[in-house]
Specification:
5-stranded mixed β-sheet; Aminopeptidase; alpha+beta; 5 strands; single chain
């Protein structure tokens, strides 16, 4: 697959294009079938629509003959970029689609002045971790992720 982010398919008929909310059902089906992707309350149609509006034209899908075969959410907070839920359908893996989705997102983030990008990886996702490390990402063993719920009274002391 050549490096593409266009409406014009390459020889395999694969294009990368911007993720629109109309892709939601197909992308959620892909995510549900993808080990290593965890869905929660931030992945409802409304929540994804809000994410796409807040981060215009950054998230991408890979499409082959009209079918979604890969997807990634990309956003930033003005300081760091974040990728979520990178997935490629099982039969299309190992053809460079995951890397191209990631590279295209990084190019977009770089263009708007973001210098570092972070991903969240389940500790048990060994194959996912190998993919990121193989593609130049570093595991930050010096940082731990902490979180609190904001939609729960228990978070207010
Ligand atoms: C991770 C994932 C997106 C990779 O997609 P992909 O399209 O198969 O990856 P690519 O073909 O672009 O791989 C690019 C390079 O990484 C390598 N690679 C891909 N998966 C790898 C793995 N599990 N372990 C080691 N290397 C891997 C490829 O061999 C290729 O290397 P090369 O350039 O030296 O030939 C895909 O395996 C997937 O959807 N996994 C399930 C969901 C998941 O875990 N996502 C990550 C959540 S954080």
């Amino acid at each position: 697959m050549k490096n593409i982010l266009a409406d014009c398919p390459d020889g395999d008929g694969i294009i990368l294009r911007v993720f629109c909310i109309e892709d939601y059902d197909a992308v959620v089906t892909l995510w549900r079938r993808s080990e290593g992707v965890g869905l929660n309350e931030s992945d409802t149609r409304d929540a994804i629509a809000a994410f796409l509006r807040r981060n215009p034209r950054l998230s991408l899908v890979a499409q082959k003959r009209g079918r979604i075969i890969g997807a990634v959410l990309c956003g930033h907070d003005g300081r760091r970029g974040y990728l979520h839920h990178l997935a490629v359908s099982k039969r299309h893996r190992q053809h460079g689609i995951g890397r191209q989705l990631v590279n295209a997102c990084m190019m977009k983030l770089r263009k708007i002045g973001i210098q570092k990008c972070t991903i969240f990886l389940f500790a048990e996702n060994v194959t996912g971790r190998k993919f990121w490390i193989h593609n130049g990402w570093s595991l930050r063993a010096d940082i731990q992720l902490m979180q609190i719920r904001l939609d729960d009274n228990k978070s207010v002391k």
